[in-house]
Amino acid sequence: MARPHLALNLFWRTFAWLALLLAGAVLAWQYTFKLLEAEPRALEAAEQLAGLVKLSRVALEHTDPINRVAVITSMSRGDTVQVRVAEQTDRWLPYDTSTFSKELAAELRQAIGPDTVVARSVNEQAGLWVRYVVGEDAFWLRTSPTPLSISLAANWWWVMIALLATAVGSALIARLINQPLRELADAAGRIRDGEYDSRLDETTMTSEIREVNMGFNRMARELAKLEEDRAVMLAGISHDLRTPLARLRLETEMSVNDEQARQFMAQDIDQLDAIISKFMDYARPNETQLRETRLGELVEREVQGFRDPDQIRFRVQVNPTLKVFVDDTELGRVLLNLFENARRYGHQPDEPARVDVSAARQGAWVELRVRDHGPGVPPDRMARLTTPFYRGDAARTAASGAGLGLAIVEKSVQRLGGQLSISNAPDGGLLTILKLQAA
């Protein structure tokens, strides 16, 4: 199954959605403030400005041309509102450059008259300018545009603070939401690795999380009991079977006169004994003592156990100085099962098995490769190779066995805190990769 190109864990997904939601709420609040608060205030100020224009118009209409100059001069003395005569040579810039300014200009024209001109600059003097006509003369009334402007730029630092608070709050909320799930995922990973003593908090305030934790702890206890019962059962059966096997071997040696028959019976007894050993290895407790070990020496020791070159031949390429952090006995058991599996199944007809063993440092790991040159395993059966008592196919199971070899390998690698990967080599044969902790 193909993995997605972009995969986010639950924390970042929750954080992203919360941040988007709250950031959208902040921006929506700003826009709502503009619509419901700022714009009505500006339009109210526009009505007041229209009132000033009408007042100045009335004052100028009822003043004779001689006294108008004095009236204009008196009205221009203020800092907020000024009146001046409009000239034909005046240069002005239109005020209605945005949606709101167009609405504001339309409001002023409706209140004052259709021939009203609203400008944001006259003769390069900024302000809010309104031109109106009194008789045959035109006048400019100038005021500050601040009460009539809708600009949230001055509030952007508040917006940035709100967005920053949104990000921090979203991270905290996402962490609080996902912390129980993170603990559950970690505990499930420990259960997968065989640590059945994992326990979750059953006193949390959230009822749903509390019920999940209680169910998980109950499941962990049941799994621990099942694992203990299984180990005791397999160990007990294996131990009890070895006593009658020993008697059978003794009786075979003493009672069977036919040499060939005695040899075949001894081989069957050895095979049963080997199968019982596999049972005991699989049922072994998950107790290991990790220590620094030279990987090359450990590999050579296990290779020396296979002395018959007519059955299996090795090519070892492991740096003598390469060290790993493992349990010697456990890793030796892993290599023994891999080599035995290669001896039985990893060879071509009428040829000895050829096994390549190599190792290389990969960051914090040491990658140990064991590869045979046999027929390999059909891809549809690859995933079940480490299932207890499962055998790949008839071609690879001609030799006798319990079907526990690779299951023991997987379990032992988990005890060592490593990783196991099994696949078909590109040019034939089975390739097993062990990732062990580098020392």
Automatic annotation (TrEMBL):
Q: Which reaction does it catalyse?
A: ATP + protein L-histidine = ADP + protein N-phospho-L-histidine
Ranges where the Histidine kinase domain occurs: 236-439
Its primary localisation, in coarse terms, equals membrane
Residue ranges of the TM segments: 156-177
- Tell me the superkingdom of the source: Bacteria
Q: Does the keyword Acetylation apply?
A: no
Q: Annotated Gene Ontology MF terms?
A: ATP binding
What's its EC?
2.7.13.3
Looking up PROSITE patterns in the UniProt record yields: HAMP (PS50885), HIS_KIN (PS50109)
Organism listed in the record? Pelomonas dachongensis
Membrane topology per record: Multi-pass membrane protein
* Keywords associated with the record: ATP-binding, Cell membrane, Kinase, Membrane, Nucleotide-binding, Phosphoprotein, Transferase, Transmembrane, Transmembrane helix
Decide whether keyword Membrane is in the record: yes
Q: Output this protein's name.
A: histidine kinase
